[in-house]
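Task 17 of the worksheet. Students: predict the tertiary structure of the chain below and write it out as structure tokens. Keep your answer in the requested format; marks are given for formatting as well as content.
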Amino acid sequence: MRTFFRWFGLVVLVLLTLAWLGLALHFLFLSAGPGASSPLGETIGGWLRLPCFKPAEPAAMYVIGCLEANEAGDYLAGFFAPLAFLWLAAAVFIQSSELREQRRELALTRNEFALNRQVATEQAEAAKAQADAARKAAEMAAEQTSILRDEYESRLQYRALEMFQIKLKAAENALRAARFPLKGQSANVPATFDLDNLKPWLNEAKNEIDKNGVLVAPTRWPEPAPIEKAMRAIRALLDEAIRHFKSVSEVEQARHNADLQKLQERVERAEAGIGELARLGWSADREAGSAEA
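Model answer:
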């Protein structure tokens, strides 16, 4: 709409200019001719070949053809001054309109910059919120991983505790059940060869060596090979129990450490007794040698 009024005003201004120029030419032609009282009038009359018009009224002094050169210049300056002022006003109006449009464009640009800054701020806040959400998600994932790891370790410790108790009980039962019948009667030893109590057998072996110089009792004792085999099986069960014991929690270790120590002492005492009897002459190697003889 503003563009329409701008062009409309420009057209009106052009039409007013043309009308004003037409009026100026009218007065110019009216005073031009061969009989004009001024050289300018005669010159214009010669160019246009118009008759001279010189009225007798005093108003004729304002006709350009009847004026001198300086008076004609003043006349033309006064005639075109309003036109120049009109175009100056139009130029000022057009420039002010353009400046107004420029101010509007600058205002729109500032608004765009403000919107862009706001959008950038919102994007930065959104990015920060996303970063916070990602950090919280990572922390939650780490916490869940820690919980799962703790649960897994707890299950492993519980499984290790179960296996420890099973192996410990198996080793204890095997040691308690490691009793072998005698080949013959002996008044100085129990009726069965008990791995958990080898003291009587050690005492008899030492007494026979002191009396006879050799160990005679093993001829009535059980064969060493099964006993040593049973001893190795008990040691294997105890070693497995110890291996699982290292994987249980510290609390459970403190609870079951005494039982493990007791069983270890019993097994080590049995191993030491078997070793001592073997040193005194009772072993699978001796039995094999006797069989070959």
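Marker's comment: Residues 69-177 form the longest helix (109 residues). The chain is about 75% helix and 0% strand.
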